[in-house]
Amino acid sequence: MSFRMQTLNEEEEYSWTQNDRRTGRDIMIAVDHGPKSKHAFDWTLLHFSCPGDTLHLVHSVSSLKNNIVYEASQALMDKLSVQALKVSGVKIVTRIVEGDAGKAICKEAEKVKPIAVVMGTRGRSLMQSVLQGSVSEYCFHNCKAAPVVIVPGIGGCEAVVLVIDGGCEAIEC
């Protein structure tokens, strides 16, 4: 194997640094009370967000008139907001929306126009998803922002499924 090194003049050197990530991005995370949603939230804080970003936490409920459901949802949003501020120093915007989860997430994504919509999935088989429906699958096909679906893996690993300009890419740990 041969290796050839090129020397660049000072004017030709790269001007970027390792921490030269653009800040001020909007990232939307669909959350619920389940462990897969929490895993996707944690993954976003550790691997995707950076200081200066704004995380838009969206939680869909069937009815905003049910006080018990609304208070539980508000407690979830408060808990996640505090964690996000402590872990990664991002700005947080929370939204509790009424309606079918998949449609509500896509509708909020149209309003926010985030760089990505991150969500977890239960890891059901294709047949189960078709028969029972899947919020992440609905968003995967209908969301105009790029959905990032965190799929549960084996042994603590996760596979990340990205949709970029209509194409699909799977990244495994």
Automatic annotation (TrEMBL):
Which Gene3D superfamilies did the record assign? HUPs (3.40.50.620)
Q: Which residues form the UspA domain?
A: 25-152
What is the superkingdom listed in this entry's lineage? Eukaryota
Which InterPro entries has this protein been placed in?
A: Rossmann-like_a/b/a_fold, UspA
Q: What is this protein called?
A: UspA domain-containing protein
